[in-house]
Write a structure and sequence with these properties.
The complex is a heterodimer.
Chain A lengths: L10 E3 L3 E6 L2 E6 L1 H7 L2 E4 L7 E2 L4 E7 L3 E5 L4 E6 L9 H4 L8 E5 L11 H8 L2
Chain B lengths: L4 H4 L5 H4 L19 H4 L17 H14 L20 H7 L2 H4 L11 H18 L3 E3 L5 H18 L6 E5 L5 H8 L3 E5 L9 H7 L4 E7 L11 H10 L3 E5 L12 H4 L3 E3 L2 H4 L14 E3 L11 E4 L12 E4 L16 H39 L18 E4 L1 H7 L3 H10 L6 E2 L8 E4 L7 H20 L1 H6 L11 H6 L8
Parallel strand pairs in B: 2-3, 2-4, 4-5, 5-6
Antiparallel strand pairs in B: 1-7, 6-7, 8-9, 10-12, 11-12
The chains are: A alpha+beta, B alpha/beta.
């Protein structure tokens, strides 16, 4: 399992999701804290390409040996690609939550929404509460 | 660590043990004229090949099931403080009563005229449950807590439809049992989660913001899954009723309040009981359970049918038929299951209520609460709560939630490791990783039927596991060592199940 980390270049949602914004496209995933709290992930079903996601709303679920948890969209947009590897290897989320364990790529609807997300330090501060 | 005999003994299914031609029973020779099978069962309806049934001798069958039972951890062997499950002792008197031929051998198709005793028992049980709930009308049909929830939400849907309203959402606190959102979805509603305040109760501002004209119902467990009684309960119900929604009381934690406070008096419209928890039944193996509901007069027309009715007088043929099944319920949500419910559970619950009486039920709840608070105080005294602090530090009800987060940080063992190590001490672990809002949660419910000595020994075992882990965390990480199977690969079992016996 990966060591605790929160890359500074990502934006964070308080429900333990991250977004990597590159121009009009953003990649979403769950944070190290989220996968650590869930434990070994055994199932994840990504939404179909073309699905419209709304910021702050659940767009999928991840299932671990402990629980099934909602995954929240940090930003609004349309799914343009999903991580096909996860169906066979959901443990990638545990092993590499910010890399191989990404969930979806989204064409962002409103770039200004990113201003409402947390930077690394602000997100990490929520974990220490 | 050497393997124990039971660990070496690979568990086999009963199918794997059979040999073709072995029999446990030989029928006697036919002493009536034999008739061709075609006359009795049409050829088209018969199997082409015989069913693949296990073929074993009687001693093999006996050994198989006795061995399986020894692989199981049960309440009759040891302390079972599984939070939210109310694993209290099942009095042997109840088994004696449930085993009486008039109960155990009663056929579910029996004509109500010849099952008057059973109907009387069910009718009396309904009245007792109505008294305990503070709500006048009861249906015994639902056969699990979750089934009672479904009944309650379907009643809510029928009630709104009857008023010409269509509502969309059901509110549940984020501490709710997982069955609540599952029920809501199954009944065709959307779940809206309500937050928890700093004291572990419902966040009233969040509730006010979310209760609106789309709200069909609030489903609430009180005391909640943190073991805390919500002091704002009347205000919560008032907010929900002002929005025109029904208030549903999940009775999962009724063991804390029997004879002390009543959901009906708090203002709730619907409550479900778990007879298998609060009113003693052997449970935990998947059933049978029983989840009756009690409702207000407003919701009574929608109750599942048939309804047990009592009427005096003699029938025209001179037979006396005091109790009957009423199918003429035009607004009913219909049947929820075949026959009348799990009757054996009714007998045991009724025996429990009659044995204890009103004051006895109150005593049971008071001692359940006392035992939980005693155990928490004992854990505090032993220093355990420094590593496993209560999630919300208040006087608890019948159970309490601890957080293993400091233990994980300081000792490097998780709640799961502690739970597995407890098995080596001869205890069934408490509930782990629930409620979800508590990090590394451990939910402990000792129940009223445990002695002070048992509670002391359990607290001591947790303290010992923590001090052992401080010296060597690997011991807990590798536990259990003494159980019929060692640590299981739960993720592997979910991702790549190995099915040995295809049916």
């Amino acid at each position: 399992m990966a060591e605790a980390s929160y890359p500074p270049e990502l934006l964070y949602h308080p429900e333990h999701d991250w977004a990597r914004v590159e121009g009009e496209v953003a990649t979403f995933g769950i944070t190290w804290h989220a996968q650590d709290a869930l434990g070994e992930i055994v199932f994840v079903e990504t939404p179909a390409v073309g699905t419209q996601l709304s910021a702050n709303e659940a767009y999928t679920e991840v299932e671990s040996v402990k629980a099934v948890s909602d995954v929240f969209a940090p930003l609004t947009g349309e799914v343009i690609e999903t991580n096909a590897q996860l169906a066979a290897k959901p443990e990638l989320i545990n092993e590499d939550p910010y890399g191989e364990g990404w969930l979806v790529k989204v064409r962002i609807a409103d770039a200004s929404e990113a201003g409402g997300l947390l930077n690394r330090d602000a997100y990490v501060a929520t974990l220490d509460e | 660590m050497t393997e124990t005999a039971m660990q070496r003994d690979r568990a086999a299914t009963i199918f794997e043990k059979g040999k073709p031609g072995r029999r446990a029973f030989t029928p006697p020779a036919v002493d009536v004229p034999e008739r061709p099978l075609d006359e009795l069962i049409p050829r088209a309806l018969r199997r082409k090949q015989p069913a693949r049934l296990p073929e074993l001798s009687e001693p093999e069958i006996v050994r198989h099931y006795v061995k399986l039972s020894r692989r199981n951890f049960d309440l009759d062997t040891g302390f079972y403080p599984l939070g939210s499950c109310t694993m209290k002792h099942n009095p042997r008197l109840h088994e004696r009563v449930a085993g009486l031929a008039g109960h155990a051998r009663l056929h579910p198709h029996q004509d109500p005229a010849r099952a008057q005793g059973a109907l009387a028992l069910m009718w009396n049980l309904e009245r007792a449950l109505a008294e305990i709930a503070g709500l006048p009308h009861v249906s015994l049909q639902p056969s699990a807590g979750s089934h009672g929830e479904l009944a309650g939400v379907l009643l809510t849907r029928a009630y709104h439809a009857d008023r010409g309203e269509q509502r969309r959402t059901v509110l549940t606190p984020d501490t709710a049992h997982g069955t609540n959102p599952a029920t809501v979805t199954m009944a065709g509603y959307e779940v809206v989660k309500v937050g928890t305040n700093a004291d572990g109760g419902v966040d009233l501002d969040d509730l006010r913001a979310k209760a609106d004209a789309q709200t069909a119902c609030l489903m609430l467990t009180n005391p909640n899954t943190l073991g805390l009684f919500d002091p704002n309960i009347e205000e919560i119900v008032r907010i929900v009723h002002e929005a025109g929604a029904t208030a549903y009381y999940d009775g999962a934690n009724l063991n804390a309040i029997m004879g002390i406070s009543r959901p009906g008096d708090m203002g709730f419209d619907i409550v479900h009981f778990n007879l298998h928890k609060s009113f003693t039944q052997p449970h935990g193996g998947g059933g049978p359970g029983s989840g009756p509901i009690a409702v207000s007069a407003t919701l009574a027309p929608f109750l599942p049918q048939p309804v047990i009715v009592r009427h005096g007088g003699e029938e025209s043929n001179g037979s006396h038929r005091e109790f009957d099944l009423d199918f003429d319920r035009p607004k009913s949500i219909g049947r929820l299951r075949g026959f009348q419910g799990n009757y054996g559970c009714f007998v045991r619950a009724y025996a429990y209520i009659c044995s204890l009486g009103a004051t006895g039920l109150r005593d049971a709840s008071e001692i359940a609460v006392l035992n939980a608070n005693y155990l928490l105080a004992r854990l505090r005294q032993l220093g355990v709560t420094e590593l496993l602090p209560p999630a919300y530090d208040r006087i608890c009800m019948h159970e309490f939630a601890l957080s293993g987060a400091p233990m994980k940080r300081e000792l490097g063992i998780r709640t799961l490791d502690l739970a597995k190590r407890l098995l080596d001490h001869g205890y069934h672990p408490p509930t782990v990783y629930f409620p979800l809002l508590v990090e590394e949660a451990l939910l402990v419910e000792p129940t009223e039927t445990e002695t002070k000595e048992t509670l002391d020994a359990f607290a001591q075992a947790i303290a010992e596991i923590l001090s052992e882990a401080r010296a060597d965390p690997e011991i807990a990480r590798g536990a259990p060592y003494t159980t019929p199977v060692r640590r299981l690969d739960e993720a592997g079992a979910a991702k790549q199940p190995v099915l040995r016996q295809a049916l």
